[in-house]
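Researcher: I'm preparing a figure for a lab meeting and need a structural model of a single chain. I don't have an experimental structure, so a prediction will have to do for now. The sequence is pasted below. Please return the structure as tokens so I can convert it later.
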Amino acid sequence: MGRRSGFPRNKHDLYDTPALAVVRLLPLLQAEGIKSFASPCDGNGCLRRHLVSAGLNCVYHGDIRQGQDALAETGFGGADAIVENPPWSRHLLHRLIEHFIESVPVVWLLFDANWVWTQQSAPLIGRCTHVVPVHRLKWIPGSRDTAKDDSCWHRLQRDHAEGPRVVGWGTKAVSRSLPHREHQGAIPSLPGALPTSTRRTRSIPSLPAFARGRT
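Model: Understood. Here is the structure written out token by token.
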């Protein structure tokens, strides 16, 4: 079962965010200096509660079901970042990405990993700085199986145009070279980041230190 299966989709593309997805993101938010966030597609508030319980401050949350249209909001409470599990339907996802990156310095969105490799991502992929894979998630409460789709956190930034680096598994320490939000012009060096052109494991030892990761 999954968000992109043959089963009927939930209304408003509402799927609660599993805690497992947040574990992978928290050290990266901390390294980047993110202290406050906005949740404009809040749903039932699961992702927001996960982040607040980890010590982050939610300065804005809203949901279309309460008449709060994320596309109509502009300030987002002055948040350091938007951190969200948005609708995956492309016609809406792409509009949200465009709006979010114009509204806040940093955007972290959780959606399917396949997007990066599709032609439809072409207008926006340049704004994506990093792709962070997570464990395969279970979106349907009580379901026996995990989703058919792999998921990733996608970090997006308005003044970036070079496309993403992939943050691989196995990194035990978080790089201290992540810029805080007052220095968002540079691409953060995230742990385990591999240039998207790197395809073969045998080439990894020749990469610079940031790409190999540190323990």
